Each structure stands twice: as C-alpha cells, then as structure tokens.
Amino acid sequence: MRSWWGWGDVEEALSDGETQALAARVATLLPGHDLTDHQPPDPGALGLAPPRITAPTSLAGLCSADFLDRAGHARGKAFRDVARNLQGRLDHVPDLIVRPRTERDVVDVLDWCTRERISVIPYGGGSSVVGGVEPRFDEPAVTLDLGALDAVLDIDRVSRAARIQAGALGRRSKTSCAHTI
C-alpha cells in the first residue's frame, strides 16, 4: 500500500536502524541542521468532510470513500505536497476514489460524472509534482485512479515504441518492455 503522505510503499519503509543510519550520514553533510524525524498525522483525526456524492449502484463496486484512500489521493508527491501532508493540511480531498478495471468502466464513470456535473481528476502513477491531482475547488470531485489499467498493450519492435495503459508505473513498464524487445 502506498504511503498517503509521501513517497513509497508503507511495506518498504525504512527500519529504525536504516533511519538512524541515514540521519547520521545526512548530519555529516548538513551539520547543525534539525534532522528530527517527523511522523505524519493520523488522517482519521484530521476531520475530513464526508463525501458529498454517492456513486450509482452500477459503479459502487469500483468506488471508495475511505478517509485514508481519499487522503492518499488528495495530492501528488511534490515537496510542498509532502510538507503540507506532514503538517496535516488536507484542505481539499476528492469525494470518492474510483478504480476502473476496464475501458468500459472508464466510459461509465465519465458518463455518470458528466450527467451529474462532477469533476474528474485522473490519477495515473500518483507521482504528480505539478499539482495536477489536487482538487483545488469546492465542487464535488472524484479521483479516477487508473492503477488497475497498467498493461503494456503493444510494442513495435522496429521503432521500439510502446502503447501502455495510463496506470502503469515506470519500473513495471520498463521491465515488461525489456522482456518483449
């Protein structure tokens, strides 16, 4: 599971020993700086507003209104995003996270959001550093998490070009392509 507040997967977090070794190394490079380990706040204690929308029954199985899920999709991974998360500043969060499994699901979600005038924020690998995944408005919004759409669809061996679905992470795509070319 990805960290809601910063980079990486929770399961791959540094151990206490690794954190101490890293802090000792950085301290030699930046003497006199405060290297206090800042723990993220519990998103459940941040008082996130409840979702303002409910998905239709036909899409309910693709949707999540879980506060940790919503907090994890409220921002990208730029330094300013991580810093605000560590400060517990979650001003705007998506109302629902929708995880389509097929292209048809994407069409159905977009049709629903168009009919109901709900903003849709596409979320690919979740590594945005330009503010593109942050709902910076007060109207209802869903985040369309494309993580399940992560296949390498086609590779042209001559041009070495690949057609890859939007939810693919770079390292997985690179590995998949390397085995094919």
Could you characterize what this model shows?
- The protein has 181 residues and is an alpha/beta fold.
- It has a single domain (10-149), classed as 2-Layer Sandwich (Uridine Diphospho-n-acetylenolpyruvylglucosamine Reductase, domain 2), CATH 3.30.43.10.
- The chain has helices spanning 16-29, 67-72, 79-86, 103-116, 170-180; strands spanning 63-64, 96-98, 119-123, 141-145, 152-156, 161-164.
- The strands form 2 sheets. It has a 4-stranded mixed β-sheet with strand order 1-2-4-3, with helices on one face. Strands 5-6 form a two-stranded antiparallel sheet.
- The longest helix is centred in the N-terminal third of the chain and has 14 residues, at 16-29.
- It is flat, with a radius of gyration of 19 Å.
- It starts with 15 loop residues before the first helix and ends with a helix.
- The model has no long low-confidence stretch (mean pLDDT 89).
In a few lines, what is going on in this structure?
The chain has helices at residues 16-29, 67-72, 79-86, 103-116, 170-180; strands at residues 63-64, 96-98, 119-123, 141-145, 152-156, 161-164. It is α/β, with parallel strands linked by helices.
**What does the overall shape look like?**
flat
Strand order of the largest sheet: 1-2-4-3
Report the CATH architecture: 2-Layer Sandwich
Report on the biggest sheet. 4 strands, mixed
Proportion of helical residues? 25-40%
> What fold name stands as the CATH topology?
Uridine Diphospho-n-acetylenolpyruvylglucosamine Reductase, domain 2
Content-based structural category: alpha/beta
Domain count: the total is 1
CATH top level assignment: Alpha Beta
Instruction: Assess the beta-strand content as a share of residues.
Output: 5-15%
Give the C-alpha Rg.
Answer: 19 Å
Number of strands: 6
Round the mean pLDDT to the nearest integer and report it. 89
Q: State the end-to-end distance.
A: 30 Å
Q: Let me know the CATH homologous superfamily.
A: Uridine Diphospho-n-acetylenolpyruvylglucosamine Reductase, domain 2
Specify the number of helices: 5
Q: What are the low-pLDDT stretches, counting only 5+ consecutive residues below 50?
A: none
Order of helices and strands: HEHHEHEEEEH
Domain FAD-binding PCMH-type: 90-181
Binding site for FAD: 122-128
Pfam families: FAD_binding_4
Cofactor: FAD
